[in-house]
Amino acid sequence: MKKLLSILIYLIVSVMLMAVVGCTPAPTPPPTPQPSLPAGKIATRENIGFITGPDYFVGENKDTTKFGFAGTDLGFPLWDSTRERMLVFFGDTFSEHKVETGKGWVSNIVGATTDLDLSNGIDWDGWLTKDGISNYSDEQQQVVEVAKSFQKEYDEKTKIPTGAVEIDGTIYMFYFSKYSWSIKIDSMNYGGCVKSINGGNTWQRVYDLTWVNHATGTNSKYGLEAKKGEGNSAENIQELVNKDNTLDVNGGNINIADHEGYFFTQIFPIDGKDGYIYIFGEGGYRTHGIKLGRVKKENIEIFDEYEYFCGNVNGEPTWQKGIAGLRACCDSDKAFILGDKESVIGEHSVAYNPYLQKWMLTYLEGGVGVSWAYSKNIWGPYIKKGALIPYTWEDLPKWEEKPVTTLYGGFIHEKWMEQNGKVMYCAYSQYFPIYNSSIMKITFM
């Protein structure tokens, strides 16, 4: 009996021990290591070469003298998804590659290419002429302006492209109207827009897309030269913004008092991939930081539908719509997404880089060169990453063994990337002793 009782107790204790062991939680496995994002450091820079001019420039169909020009600057890329080609917009253009001669000057031009391999330059398909975008196989023709300008000092010296976007086959090119090159800082008349519905062959003003420097006096209150009284009169700006793209007809009915937006006189637009077109804006000329607006794609031509970034609240962006939002954005120091009112920032462009998994913002920065910053969100905050192309880069182009100076620009696009963005191409400009745009190749770590 005692033996049976001992066996029973043994069995009960064994079952209890097994239950206790079975209830003991298994050790937590170590977390699966997550791949870290690239650090955003530049591994190598390689200069590819000049992209317009006579036959010593890189790329096929490179002798642009057939179209009456050799020297130009800038080079904003725009992918026309409808026609599957890139349009590249340039600024002041001359028949020679020396700007000081002033020969054959046109204020802005556009070239077309289906070449997305920039490792040996750009193979151009054609350029905008009076008959539309012509091909190299066509008879020789002269390039014409996308947005015609008066080319009159202390009135409208020039119109310079600042960026472009395509929506359902319609191309919108934004530009600024410049009062004078002699007055460097606060000399914008207005920021405007032209559009093409036929692939860039013809262009017309979108009058409502107008952001003026000022609506009274001769300077915006934000301009560094405002107290000097230099700049165009409000009356003259009022007339300029309502001219059509031929400059022959007052086709618009814009009241500039309803369109005052100093910090958006230079606009770079981009598709935010979320139903909005975002406009990255600057004021003055190579001065102040960058501010931001946006509009739903379907409302891109309606000025009052734009809303403007007015700062972050609890880490989330705040937006205010219409002219009230524009004024609030311009007045707020919290509305800068990069830099501040003391910054020396110039031409800028934006593209998403899949390799970095970030929005990249490139810009001219005084004393540095072409700089870049990035952000997880298109509205920022943007983290400065330093020089993309430093002024001191020893491989900057040389001409007749002399360094080509005055680096500026720096324009990027998703289609100008390889290896999912690890390799990226950038168009940049120099001024003297040769005036032209170049392509460089950047590889990230």
Tell me the name of the CATH class.
Mainly Beta
Query: Could you say which overall geometry the principal axes of the C-alpha atoms support?
Result: globular
Oligomeric grouping of the chains: single chain
CATH topology: Tachylectin-2, Chain A
Biggest β-sheet description = 5 strands, antiparallel
List keywords for this structure.
3 helices, mainly beta, 9% helix, 5-stranded antiparallel sheet, 445 residues
Folded structure, characterized:
9% of the residues lie in helices and 37% in strands. It is mainly beta and 445 residues long. It has one domain (42-444): Tachylectin-2, Chain A (5 Propeller), CATH 2.115.10.20. Strands 1, 23, 24, 25 and 26 form a five-stranded antiparallel beta sheet that branches. Strands 2-3-4-5-6 form a five-stranded antiparallel beta sheet, with no helix packed on it. Strands 7, 8, 9, 10 and 11 form a five-stranded antiparallel beta sheet that branches. The N and C termini lie far apart (80 Å). Residues 1-5 and 15-26 have low confidence and may be disordered.
Short description:
The chain is mainly beta and 445 residues long. The protein has helices spanning 2-23, 234-241, 322-331; strands at 42-50, 74-80, 85-90, 109-113, 126-129, 132-135, 158-167, 170-178, 188-196, 204-205, 211-212, 266-271, 276-283, 287-296, 307-313, 316-321, 345-353, 358-365, 369-375, 383-390, 398-399, 402-403, 408-411, 417-418, 423-430, 436-444.
